[in-house]
Amino acid sequence: MATDTKIKVVVGKPGLDGHDRGAKVVARALVEAGMEVVYLGLRQTPESIVAAAIEEDADVIGLSVLSGAHMTHFPKVMELMKEKGIGDRLLTGGGIIPTKDQETLTAMGVGKLFGPGDDPSLIVNYIQDWVKEHRREN
Amino acid sequence: MTPKTAEADRTAPVRDADFTTISGRELKNVYTPDDLAPEDLGENLGLPGDYPYTRGIHPTMYRGKLWTMRQFAGMGTAEQTNQRFKFLLERGQTGLSTAFDNPTLYGWDSDHPLSAGEVGKTGVAVDSLADMERLFDSIPLDKVSTSMTINAPAAWIFTMFLANAENRGVPLEKLRGTIQNDILKEYIAQKEWIFPPEPHIRLICDMFAFCADHVPQWNTISISGYHIREAGATAAQELAFTLMDGFTYVDAAIEAGMNVDDFAPRLSFFFNSHMDFFEEIAKLRAARRIWARHMKEEYGAQNPRSWLCRFHVQTAGCSLTAQQPEVNIVRTAIEALAGVLGGCQSLHTNSMDEALALPSDKAVEIALRTQQVIAFESGVANVADPLGGSYLIERLTRELEEEAESYFAKIREMGGMVKAIERGFPQQEITRSAYEYQCALSEKRKTMVGVNEFVHENEVLEIPILEIGESVERDQIAAVKKLKETRDNVAVKDSLDALEKAARTKENLIPHLLRCSHAYATEGEITETLIKVFGEYREQAFF
Hints:
Structural class of chain B: alpha/beta
CATH architecture of chain B: Alpha-Beta Barrel
CATH superfamily of chain A: Cobalamin-binding domain
Mean pLDDT of chain B: 95
CATH topology of chain B: TIM Barrel
Strand order of the largest sheet of chain A: 2-1-3-4-5
Oligomer: heterodimer
Distance between the termini of chain A: 5 Å
CATH topology of chain A: Rossmann fold
Shape of chain B: globular
Helix content of chain A: 40-55%
Order of helices and strands of chain A: EHEHEHEHEH
Largest sheet of chain A: 5 strands, parallel
Number of helices of chain A: 5
CATH superfamily of chain B: Methylmalonyl-CoA mutase
Strand content of chain B: 5-15%
């Protein structure tokens, strides 16, 4: 992947959570900021999300979880990413995620997680900075 | 005589601020009789209890009966939620409202692979009649009205409720309550569907017909704008899409051979009450007027009860902030007041901690107390429609009615709501509004206190957070597995086979679902049986 290509982000909602307002607003904000977004939509599994990230050669996976199932989905996606050889990409996301759980997930290697009231520009900046620092050279 | 203010003063400079509503509606500095059309104080208005019901559905409104204080509750196991129900009733709540967990809302059992991590998290897990028995244990079903927020599998969760009532010897005609049962807004906003629209709408019509004969006091549907608004719609979009959904159900039931007056009196509605105080009040008044006019004039309903838009209101979850959560108590109070001044029949007030987690006992008690302060201290319940005749309110009510009518025309042009949903029209309108509002926040044209202004740096959260233990999922999975081993599996199979056979005909499915429920068939087994006949719905993802 060349450094001048667009940052590519796969955005998905794992599990049964239908709250997609935040995911859609963030997806749009990432596009406005010049990134390429592959929006998978609802009812994704960790497997389908990781498969899409590999297929798209994405830099970033963004999960949106407002259902309380974050401690199931984030670790599972992280584990699959490592298993499938894309553990060097960023796994980030947002939802209703208590600070205590965020800390546990960060310790597992999950990136920063965002919540209600966080401006989309924070997410844009975070992803841009992360990619600048970590982008793989071909 | 007081001297008139000079014209120059009326055009004096104003603050550099956005004076539009939260939906982006332009407002004037002041409203006068010139802003009203003659009909706004005439045929558009009337008295409370009179057609077109702009001013309320009862002549005496809250002097006659206060709104029902109904807090949406559900978490963990049936036992845990049963305890929360009793906690709320002891503190003066006057009706129950059940929140189910995600697997239940999608029609899956707790042991389904897609249920992993979600059992009991955002509501109570119900897999079968056995859970329903524990959920309503020692709650007098013939005395407390009960609302159940469930849509795609509404018919078979409802028949589990009925089976429980029958087993306890409570006559079905004594049951009072509401089942949400509104699938169209699922496709539009909340996204909990199973089948394509047509079979879901058939099941809804089956419910209308069955309840008209057997459960006459039950509200067979709660046509909901709440979720549409939460997904980002403006006030006018919420109003228009909700009522258009309502007309779609009326059309379907008439097409299924029912007489409008046989089912329309049991249709009910559910609206959001957001932060923009006057616009919300106007929206609720407009809803009553539009519904009454269409039911009477377009559908020719004769029974005045068919004309009534009776509704529940919930304060806006999306207006709550994770930052400085105590401030949410104030937001909720303002929104609840708008719901009451808009003439709601029942009300849920959100708890201050809902941008963080499911509400704690303490938070839900404050939310209920908020309603009690409005009802018993503020004096607003003493007069029916106290804002009637206000230049601003009557003008906004008319504007909202006109905007809704223009959406109706647009949707009809597309071939109706189902067609509009299939081409993503309401979904795209809502997504656009949500993004525009986010931009307004980012650019600080709109303010959320504690979020984009008046921010508390390095805030430390100081309120207790309710946690649902992981044992809930393990216990629930064990219970459903055990049930499947211990029940009469021949009776289960027979009832499911009969259901499948009936689903392939035009027969009313509710008696079959009731039989399955009595046999302790699980929710997921019923879902899978019906998927064999009806298929599954897939959404085109877009943003």
